[in-house]
Amino acid sequence: VHRGQIGMSSPSNFVHLFLNAPDILKAHIEERAVNPYQLVLDVILLGIILYVITRRAEKPERPLSEKEIAQEIDDFHPDPLFPDVDDPLSKLDRVPIIKGSTVTEVILEDDRKVLHMARTNFLGMINNPRVEESALKALRKYGTGTCGPRGFYGTIDIHLELEERIRKFLDAEDCLIYSFGFSTIASAIPAFAGRDDLLIVDKAVNFSVQTGVKLSRSEVMWFNHNDMADLERILIEVEKKDKRTKRTINRRYIVIEGLYYNTGDLANLPEIFKLKTKYCYRTIMDDSYGVGTIGKTGRGTCQHFGIPVKEVDILTGNLEGVTSSIGGFCCASRPIVYHQRLNSTGYVYSASLPPLLAAASITAFDIMDEQPQLFGKLTENIQKLYGKLNEISGIKIASMPSSPVIHLQLENPTGDQFTDEETLQLIVDKALEKGVLLTRAKYVYGKEQYLPKPSIRVTVSAALSDSDLDKTTRVISESVKEVIPNRPQTAVKEESNTGLQKRR
Fold first, then answer.
1. Contact (CB, 8 A) for 310 and 173
2. pLDDT tens digit string along 379-414?
3. Which of 107, 197, 372, 426 is the least buried, fewest Cβ under 10 Å from its Cβ?
4. How far is residue 434's CA from residue 425's CA, in Å, rounded to a whole number?
């Protein structure tokens, strides 16, 4: 049917087409010579047609025999669901089984009562009769909860009541609560920081903050812990790079903790606020271990330095240490809080906080307001224990005197992380034998951005008596004296890399 000159309506036309095929082909090639791309396309199509016509039909597969099936199964080796993590420190872990609890003690599986100095029961809310009664009332009224996300069918009036209670307690503009303390800061950071943003982060932040930083996928720069000179150096470098490359970054944040859980010291908030104002940055601060422990009335690191909470752009915390409940909170301006209700994964996709836990937290905050002497008692216990522990030879205190989280490090470390951790674990084991439950400060090996130095973490509670403090000091002192002389004593420079860090 070339140019409509030849038809296929009769056998004679077909014969005519066959006899004139060379002339038709020649004319076709001449026409396509004007358009070489069309010629190439024709050749490709012709090749495909020839392939389809000449290819052999595939033979149906023969079903496998029983023997072949068994061989295939034997040869199948699936990849593990998670990779092997070679964590030598996990070999040191001894996890005591607890079957009962009082305000300051726990009952182990062998029915021994031991003083618990490893949990964050800062204000003694565990086993508090008022807290327990309010939780039971909420359980009878609401049941266990809706088991649904807040934005769908999970919000109950008691959730809103707790948010308002925390807002008033901290004198913040607005507040929302999360179902789990860890996910609070881990969700809040990526809700406001993305690929085109910049985070400048303290190296000592805890793992939940590190998780939020990682999930944000922002550009990240780390400054030395509480080193304001290093922080300003990075801010100046960023400013120079911006001018040189003319880049634009949407949002910039300085990410810190109020009271650092991994070190037991406070952020230098006054200097950080000067720098963030000078270089136009926002602040994200996790004060999980400052709110309820630091400040005259327990309002946290901001109260300690006389800085209004509203000056912090995003302030997060957990309810697990202060109220002995579960959950977390974020205080910020109303637009920032509203944005999280729609975009924060830990809020949007998590089941809402069980009402009984919300009720327990509300009562705990009521107790804090009614009994401000709790904070004075906590501060007194911290100072007493700090002074007593400071007299023990063989260990040193790495925390500040006002911190309820006290880190005890070896006075003469060997420099090898595993050896030092093993020494500290032996001290912990000895202390448990003598009636005091302690713990090494444990971290997520291979995942921490910067692995802290080995230490024993001791937590102080306002519920502890003088005899409890004396017992803790005596037991730690005796345990250190029994363990240290039998351990390697080769000291190395603190700045040298540890064995575990080298393997990382």
1. yes
2. 999 999 999 999 999 999 999 999 999 999 999 999
3. 372
4. 14
